[in-house]
Amino acid sequence: MSAPFESRRVVVTGGAGFLGSHVVERLRERGVEPFVPRSRDYDLRSESGTERLLADARPELIIHLAAVVGGIGRNLTNPGKFFYDNLIMGALLIEAARRAGVSKLVCVGTVCAYPKHAAVPFREADLWDGFPEETNAPYGVAKKSLMVLLQAYREQYAFNGITLLPVNLYGPRDNFDPASSHVIPALIRKCVEARRRDEPVVTCWGTGEPTREFLYVEDCAEAILLAAECYDGPEPINLGTGREISIRDLAGLIAELTGFRGELVWDATRPDGQPRRCLDVTRARERLGFTAGTTLEDGLARAIAWYAKNHPGAD
After folding, report:
1. Domain for residue 267, yes or no?
2. Range of the structural domain that residue 73 is part of
3. Could you report how far apart the first and last alpha carbons of the chain are, in Å?
4. Cβ neighbours of residue 188 closer than 8 Å, sequence gap 6 or more
5. How far apart are CA 82 and CA 143, in angstroms?
6. Using CA atoms, how far apart are residues 194 and 241, in angstroms rounded to an integer?
7. Is 139 one of the annotated active-site residues of the chain?
8. Which one, of 296, 278, 268, lies nearest residue 188 by Cα?
């Protein structure tokens, strides 16, 4: 078992982002003030920037959350950038951490690494049963490559790196920019703004038929810290709830919770993405003792309240 947080110097890449800010909060609750590098000071896509980060922070534990991410639209317009930036950041950081003698590195991957038509629920053993869904394959393959790199470094160098695979996240501080947001913040913004302007229709992407699983961001942050504390194995671990919901039902739930009483119209010319997503979370329960504690309804209500409070004049 790994050493307790209180006795370690911790770096959280991406610690100012959506998931990272919640991880940093929980570290502080445990008495740790992590080093949070900013991209303007440390460019993790360059070897010099990465090595300078490790020299300045001298970490014993790294939680790697920095990533270039977005919804289907942003993935479709930036496939090369999503592949290169995510691959190079992770690869340079892992190699620099190995050379610097870092005790442990937690690499947070993505559900997008799973094959497009993987059997539901997705088991970690199914990662190589096919190619990922095309709209986010470059991002998913880049993240999955880092898992292989960590497994290779464990075998050759005895480097302790672990991989976690969270399902789609949502919650306070999410990205609500319509040009790059994921489905939940996009629907929350559309419904809240339509209600504010008394508009009769909200248009949603796709057919509404695909299913997704969603994990509240604070639950994910807790799972990451559990893994950092107690898991040192080579196998990846899914992080999720095990609950699946169609996008159509999700949109209806968000409309209800936001008070939007108009019509939801589906634009089938827009891509649906992967047909289904639902994780087998047995390994997380058995290896980490983790079970998500926030229901989708409660988590959505908190995310909606945060958006309404922090974007009072959004258009």
Report:
1. no
2. 5-171+214-243+277-293
3. 49
4. 176, 254, 258, 300, 303, 304, 307
5. 10
6. 30
7. yes
8. 296
**Amino acid present at 134:** E
Q: Is residue 181 part of a domain?
A: no
Number of domains in the chain: 1
pLDDT per residue, tens digit, the chain (315 aa), is: 455 666 689 999 999 999 999 999 999 999 999 999 999 999 999 999 999 999 999 999 999 999 988 777 887 889 999 999 999 999 999 999 999 999 999 999 999 999 999 999 999 999 999 999 998 899 999 999 999 999 999 999 999 999 999 999 999 999 999 888 889 999 999 999 999 999 999 999 999 999 999 999 999 999 999 999 999 999 999 999 999 999 999 999 999 999 999 999 999 999 888 899 999 999 999 999 999 999 999 999 999 999 999 988 764
Indicate which residue of 114, 139, 216, 307 is catalytic: 139
Q: Is 110 part of a structural domain of the chain?
A: yes
Q: Which residues pair with 266 in a beta bridge?
A: 204
- Kindly state whether residue 25 falls inside one of the protein's structural domains: yes
Q: Specify the CATH number for the domain of residue 77.
A: 3.40.50.720
Residues written for the chain: 315
DSSP assignment letter at 61: E
Q: Mark residue 208 as left, alpha or beta (left: phi above 0; alpha: psi -120 to 50; beta: remaining).
A: left
Any alpha helices (H) in the chain, and if so which ranges? 18-29, 47-57, 72-77, 79-100, 137-157, 183-196, 217-230, 247-258, 282-283, 296-310
Asked if 249 and 212 touch (Cβ cutoff 8 Å), the reply is no
